[in-house]
Write a structure and sequence with these properties.
five-stranded mixed beta sheet, Rossmann fold, five-stranded antiparallel beta sheet, PTS_EIIB_3, sugar transport, 33% helix, 4 domains, phosphotransferase system, transport, protein-N(PI)-phosphohistidine-sugar phosphotransferase activity
Length: 492
């Protein structure tokens, strides 16, 4: 779909507004003007509703878009997928320029329409062998068809659950493997995982299970709304860093479906505000928008520091195909736009530096990050308090040799299976021990959480005495920001 023009009527014949919105003066763009412009749209595929002065809804068969207006000209746009009520995309911005506000609306409108490809609700059931859940899945499919529900149920044995979960919107596990729920949730971040209540499962109660699923989605929508309006994270680990003056620290994380940005504004080394955003696609303008939002009310940081995926060399030249950057000087662009000193660092390296803060007595430490579905781990190493980035920022980019290794299956298949992760991690750890011999290795590996089992498998290739301490790292976001703070401190 093509992007909308400055008047906001999308060029796509599907999204084109029936009514051409009136233009508004760009000299002073107010919330009232923006609301009037939004309400002047009309589409065949969705309805538009304004239940209150500060809220507008776009409702369709496949998703809803909620636009809220707050004090200080803050606008918030959220998109919920209809089939499971999941919050798919979220952004907020300060209403300043007319063209920017309209562009954000058009982008989110396209994101809303893209959900028409995601109407079928895929629910994956699992038990020890898959036999019992297969029978229940068959009954559920019959009932869904009878009730004209666009729901599809399937079932797999537990050992095939991880590799089968890609398209699942909801995972329901049998009571007999309920003790594995937490492990599954950690292995599949972002997936909804619940245990089927024992009475429903034992009685093969398809009707009760359908009602239970509806209840789950209602509760999940309430939870998403609560998180959306309470963006402060739980009390993070102590991350006070003695950098001088105000600073904006940013973490950018990519996954297969969306872009997640977390921003924290610090004064005197302490966090004073945090904001998060979730986007459908990756565009640099979204980064500028979020930075501008955090710098509203005249904030003037001395530093803007980013942790970002991709290759980042010592001159902050970033290479990341998904963001259309090839040796792009991101730091220079940020300094030009915001008149602040800027540093850009690979996000795994930033996290490794943050982890090193907790072990100051160790000379060498390494972090391995291997999310579900990635075709190779990322590695960050810190030696004597310094990031080992290499001559051109390639240190730790395992993807350049992974596809030359002789594995038991394709990298894509291995990246979606627990045994595949063991295989690829061993192929990553052995060279690290041979060439760097770290004192400790932090493991950001959701599919592999049993460090004793990983160490035991390593002993098939190297003596136990040479295996460093392996520590599982659950949520590394605080370590990323801690690493960014350390980088600022080192520049003083």
């Amino acid at each position: 779909m093509e992007k909308g023009n400055r008047e906001g009527n999308l060029k796509s014949p599907v999204l084109k507004s029936k009514n051409r919105p009136a233009t508004v003066s760009a000299d002073l763009y107010t919330a009232d003007s923006y609301q009037n412009w939004i309400l002047s749209h009309s589409f065949e595929w969705c309805s538009i509703d304004q239940p209150s002065n500060d809220t507008i809804y776009f409702r369709s068969e496949f998703g809803d878009m909620e636009i809220r207006f707050y004090d200080e000209n803050i606008v918030e746009i959220s998109i919920f997928r209809k089939k499971d009520t999941q919050l798919r995309y979220y952004l907020h911005f300060e209403l300043k320029k007319e063209s920017h506000a309209k562009e954000m609306f058009n982008d989110m409108l396209e994101a809303l329409y893209s959900l028409h490809q995601e109407t079928t609700l895929h629910i994956l059931l699992s038990c020890t062998s898959g036999a019992t859940t297969s029978f229940l899945a068959s009954k559920l499919n019959q009932l869904a068809k009878k009730n004209q529900l666009d729901w599809h149920f399937s079932a797999v044995p537990y050992l095939q659950l991880i590799e089968s979960a890609d398209q699942a919107d909801l995972i329901l596990i049998a009571p007999q493997i309920g003790y594995l729920k937490k492990k599954i949730e950690c292995a599949l971040p972002g997936k909804l995982v619940f245990q089927i209540p024992t009475p429903l499962f034992s009685g093969f109660d398809a009707s009760g299970t359908i009602d239970y699923i509806r209840h789950l989605f209602e509760e999940e929508k309430k939870r998403e709304k609560h998180l959306q309006h309470n963006l402060e994270s739980p009390k993070e680990k102590e991350s006070y860093i003695e950098f001088l003056g105000p600073a904006l620290l940013i973490s950018v994380i990519l996954d297969s479906e969306q872009l997640n940005i977390t921003l924290r504004y610090y004064e005197n080394g302490k966090k004073v505000e945090e904001a998060k955003a979730v986007f459908a696609i990756l565009k640099r303008k979204y980064l500028w928008q979020e930075i501008s939002y955090m710098l509203r009310n005249g904030r003037k940081p001395e530093w803007i520091v980013l942790a970002i995926p991709g290759i980042v060399d010592d001159e902050s030249l970033v290479t990341m195909k998904k963001m259309n950057m090839d040796h792009f000087n991101l730091a220079e662009e940020i300094e030009r736009r915001y008149s602040a000193r800027c540093l850009v660092v690979n996000n795994v390296n930033a996290c490794a530096l943050g982890c090193s803060h907790w072990q100051p007595d160790l000379k060498t430490m390494t972090l391995i990050s291997f999310p579900y579905g990635c075709t190779g781990p990322g590695v960050g190493t810190v030696i004597d308090g310094k990031i080992l980035s290499g001559r051109r920022g390639l240190a730790g980019e395992c993807k350049f040799y992974m596809n030359r290794m002789q594995f038991s299956n394709s990298l894509d298949k291995l990246s979606r299976a627990e045994e595949g992760h063991y295989e690829m991690l061993i192929a990553t750890i052995l060279p690290l021990i041979s060439f760097i011999d770290p004192d400790i290795i932090y493991m950001r590996t959701p599919l592999i959480q049993d460090m004793k089992e990983l160490a035991a498998r390593l002993t098939n290739y190297i003596a136990e005495e040479y295996i460093p301490k392996l520590v599982y790292l659950n949520n590394p976001l605080d370590e990323v920001f801690l690493g960014l703070g350390i980088l600022i401190s080192s520049r003083k």
